[in-house]
What does this fold into?
Amino acid sequence: MSPASRESGGRDLRRNAPIFAALGDATRLKLLTKLSRGSRVSIARLTEGSTLTRQAITKHLRVLQDAGLVRGVRRGRENLFELEPEPLDEARRALDVISRQWDQVLARLKSFVE
Amino acid sequence: MSPASRESGGRDLRRNAPIFAALGDATRLKLLTKLSRGSRVSIARLTEGSTLTRQAITKHLRVLQDAGLVRGVRRGRENLFELEPEPLDEARRALDVISRQWDQVLARLKSFVE
DNA sequence: TTCATATGCAACCTCCTGGTTGCACAATAG
DNA sequence: CTATTGTGCAACCAGGAGGTTGCATATGAA
It folds into this structure.
């Protein structure tokens, strides 16, 4: 068994806190869905249609980037952002860890009741 | 198709922001793993072994409860907390939505390169 | 060159979050 | 009854998050 999963199972889950925190904002989720269409999008275009300032959007993108969910590549005068697949998969796996234990608990409970 | 999934796919994702926000804290993730063992645990016992105050733990539990991830039931003088399975599953499904689109994008990209 | 576009940086503001302390109160234990 | 245990509530505090504005700068277009 790997060291991470041996130690009470909580450590590798706790590692994902920054990712979840980055996901815990409606504006940022909106940005992610815009980016999930696949093309690289500039900050200006990501700001279009939002009530927020370009600077606000920039800050949100920074948060997403620090969490590793997104990456910005420079092209000419614009900064194009694209999704970064791996961390999200990891977060999903982390949720799997809890809900799997959860399921076991429920199954145990159910068999106890029946 | 449901109304939620029809509207640009982003709305039902954005609904999960509070859940992700609740998950975005190391202390709360630790609490969740403690609770994922299945038994109902009192605030006092959840506080044991932590460097934080009971009040701090209480506040975190409140956040988890407001996000619907946890539920407190009163027994005598103590407040026992237990997990609430459904919202977490929903959050996981929400992540699935992004990463599935993501995968499609990557697949498209790959087939384009090859 | 000259103008417009896309961004970056920094200062500033307000409000929420995470944490503490102190006190009051209900429920058990002896 | 009295002491102890488990909570709840409120006030308070420091720091960070989200947002704005103003200005500087690089690139592209004409």
Chain B has one domain: 8-113.
